[in-house]
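Take just one protein record:
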Amino acid sequence: MTDPFVGQLAFLRVYSGNLKQGDTVYNPRREKNERVSRLLSNARQQAEEISEVYAGDIAAAVGLKHVSTGDTICDENAPVVLEPWISGARHLRGPSNPNQG
């Protein structure tokens, strides 16, 4: 998603540990390192800049140019690859798509 004020956003959930602004993360699928320039929380009506997220938190990261849906980011010294949880699109049946489902 692209925000007109901050640029490209990557939404993420922290499964373990923590993530801070300025941290370098590793994407094992693409075999690339990237730096998290900013972290944003959308817990309230407006996005708010935060310095750190912890296990269980959901946030948006700014600065990740080589991630896509389903990627795992981790510490390069302790790589983790989770199974992608999005495997394909589902289409609802309806008047315009009677054979889809």
User: Anything to note?
Assistant: The radius of gyration is 16 Å. The mean pLDDT is 83. The chain has no helices and nine strands.
